[in-house]
Design a protein that fits this description.
heterodimer, A: 310 residues, mainly alpha, MetI-like fold, 0% strand, B: 333 residues, 13 helices, 77% helix, globular
Chain lengths: 310, 333
Amino acid sequence: MPKTSSPALAAAPPLPATANPAAGTPAAAPRYGRRALRAFLRNPTAIAGLVLLALVMLGASLAPLFYPDDPLGMVGRPLLWPGRQWSHPLGTDSLGRDVAAGLMHGARISLLVGFAATCVGLSLGILVGAVAGYRGGWLDDALVRLIEIFQAVPSFILLVVLVAIAQPSVATIVGAIGIVTWPTIARLVRAEVRALRSKDFVVAARGMGYGHGRIILREILPNAMPPVIVTSSVMVASAILMEAALSFMGLGDPNTVSWGSMIGAGRELLRTAWYLTALPGLLIVVTVLALNLIGDGLNDALNPRLEKDS
Amino acid sequence: MTTPGRLTRRFLRTALQAIPTVLGIVILNFLLLQLAPGDAADVMAAESGTATEETLAALRARFGLDQPLLLQLLGYLSNLAHFSLGYSPRYNMPVAELIGQRLPGTLLLMATALALAFVVGLLLGLVMAATAGRWPDRVVSVLALLFYSIPGFWIGLMLIVLFSVTLGWLPSGGYQTIGGPSGGGPAEGLAALLDRLRYMVLPATSLALFYVAIYARLARAALLEAQTHDYVRTARAKGLPAWTVMTRHVLRNALLPVTTMAGIHLGGILGGAVVVETVYSWPGLGRLAYEAVMARDFSILLGVLLLSSLLVIAANLLVDVLQAWLDPRIEAS
């Protein structure tokens, strides 16, 4: 990308110092991957992130086992504080719904939305970025314009508008988060593809008569992946944060329980029963922190240049 | 070339580049408005309580809603050129006026949060860079990552529990004490300012925390990068104290990348303000957007979206010129 790129392009980046890891050289790709994996597994904070995420995933997968009934159903006396009654270890909310059941079922929604929305954003972003970077010319100009437009619009406000128009449901929230996050990936992939398309191994592949589709999919994209992998773990984290904020504002799927909607409901009783707000929020922090720790670990592992700093 | 001339040319060039983006955003807004359920005729019919098919058709004809899409777009553009964003039946006033009322509150909150994040972030970054690799660096790094993972609205609620409910030190919402801080009518001068400040502390902190994390990490990276230059080695070799080298030689050069990021985060802060303002009943654009969502008032919602996008573009323009001013190596060509 030229040094004097338009400022509108540069909105809402991931955490600084995690951007722009070096792409691997193609010849060393398998060795490079194994080396990166070893570096990742030696990083204690990355392992801590993995363990935390695994615990949240375990909780989410055990939810139907522990609480097979609808978590939105009333099961006990309302506003029971945590630790008072064994049958409801984390207490109940103002309608007598079990908080622990809500938290475990809410984990399913948060993780589902986080990963699904990232998949949508990744697919759109990789498609647009690869086409723009590989083709160049007027198509590139047009797509860069489109990216600039989406990056200038404050993403959370656009998200609110999209979900309000489409009516809140898990599917529309996933789609809308994908729509507001794809430009980051598109920009990243475009820059990588542009840098890679004139490399010797791509020229060689072209010389062997391979089609454009094969060159993009088999030669260029695998080598453009390291920065995309790093960014995608941060994307899952921010998608979870966005979903929480949406449901906190009353724009969540009304038929499911989610951490954000639990906080929104608990907010009314902040003065008397603050545990209703604190517990789901703590789980959001733990999950998002785990994903960010993993993202940091991936960045260090995939970008050996930064090792000297730490 | 003189500095003012260079900066003016830079400004004009970047502004010219931004025009297609602005147009694209306007068209995006128009399309979203088309997608939104119900049109202006429906709204007016609902407002009056009753309407027949014929009146609805007459209303649509009068406002050009039965025209082809392209003509409607032209009408929308000409309305925008006259600073008209439509009319809100809920508030019974033009959307542009409504947004104008709420804009200062949001700008004030955002500027305070951004300044707070910048200062605290820079300090944390200095600590991390000075102790890179040792335990203070690691502790602050994890702390920054924690700040980066906390939802702004949740920390806002928790701060209310701690500082308003339990300790009773700070107000839990609003933007000034009704009837003045002493209860004897509206305050003036310093007392009013202090009163406003008390209401600002919690919302600004909630909004700033996320950006503290960003600036801390950004400052750490920039400081470490700036330390590798030859002039730093020269300064050290001259026998300057470490602190002087850090503030005079390293910090100054590391400030550029950190400063220029501030404008870039405006869009994100605007989004964050939406949620934080709802928590603290802060009278700003975000709270307006929230109320519009609740009432499904799409003309307000899209007005907020359009205006905040333009704000982001303007801020980026400003940052671009600022960058060229701070760093004369950036060409005006």
